[in-house]
C-alpha cells in the first residue's frame, strides 16, 4: 500500500558508518558487495555500487575515535537468490574478516554476521520481495513505532510506503522501484549512545539549504547538538532520536 506524500526536496544520498579504520571497512564491504571504493577528503572513503544495482546512495566510512559499544540501530540486509548463493555470501564474508554474531536470533533462515569492526548485518535467505534489489536487500532501522518512523522518513525522502507486516515492519521503496528497501522494524531497545550508522539526506543542486532544513524540521525532525565544530551540513534527529544529516544541495 502506498501513502500520499507532500512533495519535499530532500532525498537519501548516503549511509554513513563510523569506523576506527575506514580503509579496512571500505575494503571489506567493497569486496563483499562487488562494488568499488573511492577515497575522499579527511579520511573518508566511499563505496559505490554499479549503476546496474539500482543503489543510488554511497556507503560512506568516516574516521572516529569512539569504539563501538552497543548493537547498531541501523544495519544492512543482503539479498540472496538461492540457498547456495546465501551460503556463498556467508563464506565470502567470513573469508574477508567478518564473523558470526549471536543477537539472540535463535533458529532463523537468515544468517547474522558482523563486519571487521563489529557492525551487524544479515545475509537473507531468498525472498521474492528482494528479487530485484541488487546486492543489498534493505537498510533496516530499529523502531519503537515503525509506522510513525516510516511516515517521517517517507515525508523527507519521497519514498512511499510499499509494504507492511502487521505492526512489526513497515517498508519504503524508491519511486523507481529499484535498489534497496528502507525498512523500520519494531524493537524495544532503548537508544543509549550516538548511532554509529546514520543516513544523510540532501536537497537537489540549486536548492536553498536553510529552507530544506526548515522543511525537514517541520516534518518532525529536531536539531541535534553533538558538540562538534561548525559544519556546512546540519545534524538533526528523527522522531525516535536517530541522528541524520541534511547535507548541502547536490
* Rg on CA atoms, Å: 17 Å
From the N-terminal CA to the C-terminal CA, the straight-line distance is 30 Å
Reported for the largest beta sheet, the result is: 8 strands, mixed
- How many helix segments? 4
Order of helices and strands: EHEEEEHEEEEHEEEEHEEE
- Low-pLDDT windows of residues: 1-5
Q: Tell how many strands the DSSP assignment holds.
A: 16
Shape: globular
Strand arrangement within the widest β-sheet reads 2-3-4-1-13-16-15-14
Task: Estimate the strand proportion.
Answer: 25-35%
Sheet/helix structural class: alpha+beta
Mean pLDDT: 93
Helix content: 10-25%
Model description:
- The protein has 250 residues and is of the alpha+beta class.
- A hairpin with a 5-residue loop joins strand 15 (234-237) and strand 16 (243-246).
- Strands 2-3-4-1-13-16-15-14 form an 8-stranded mixed sheet. Strands 6-7-8-5-9-12-11-10 form an 8-stranded mixed sheet, covered by helices on one side.
- It has helices at residues 22-33, 83-95, 146-157, 209-218; strands at 11-19, 36-39, 45-48, 58-63, 74-78, 99-100, 111-114, 120-123, 136-143, 161-165, 169-172, 181-186, 197-202, 222-223, 234-237, 243-246.
- Residues 15-124, 139-247 form the Glyoxalase-like domain.
- This is Glyoxalase-like domain-containing protein.
Amino acid at each position: 500500500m502506498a501513502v500520499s506524500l507532500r512533495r519535499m526536496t530532500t532525498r537519501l544520498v548516503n549511509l554513513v558508518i563510523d569506523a576506527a579504520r575506514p580503509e579496512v571497512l571500505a575494503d571489506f564491504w567493497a569486496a563483499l558487495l562487488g562494488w568499488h571504493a573511492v577515497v575522499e577528503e579527511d579520511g573518508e572513503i566511499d563505496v559505490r555500487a554499479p549503476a546496474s544495482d539500482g543503489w543510488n546512495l554511497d556507503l560512506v566510512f568516516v574516521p572516529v575515535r569512539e569504539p563501538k559499544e552497543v548493537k547498531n540501530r541501523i544495519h544492512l540486509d543482503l539479498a540472496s537468490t538461492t540457498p547456495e548463493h546465501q551460503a556463498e555470501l556467508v563464506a565470502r564474508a567470513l573469508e574477508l574478516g567478518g564473523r558470526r554474531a549471536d543477537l539472540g536470533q535463535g533458529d532463523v533462515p537468515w544468517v547474522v554476521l558482523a563486519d571487521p569492526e563489529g557492525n551487524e548485518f544479515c545475509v537473507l535467505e531468498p525472498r521474492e520481495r528482494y528479487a530485484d534489489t541488487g546486492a543489498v536487500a534493505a537498510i533496516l532501522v530499529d523502531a519503537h513505532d515503525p509506522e510513525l518512523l516510516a511516515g517521517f522518513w517517507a515525508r523527507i525522502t519521497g519514498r512511499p510506503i510499499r509494504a507492511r507486516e502487521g505492526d512489526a515492519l513497515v517498508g519504503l521503496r524508491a519511486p523507481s522501484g529499484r535498489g534497496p528497501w528502507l525498512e523500520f522494524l519494531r524493537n524495544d531497545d532503548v537508544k543509549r549512545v550516538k548511532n554509529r550508522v546514520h543516513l544523510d539526506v540532501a536537497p537537489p543542486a540549486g536548492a536553498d539549504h536553510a529552507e530544506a532544513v526548515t522543511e525537514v524540521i517541520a516534518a518532525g525532525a529536531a536539531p541535534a547538538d553533538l558538540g562538534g565544530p561548525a559544519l556546512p551540513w546540519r545534524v538533526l534527529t528523527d522522531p525516535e532520536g536517530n541522528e541524520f544529516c541534511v547535507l548541502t544541495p547536490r
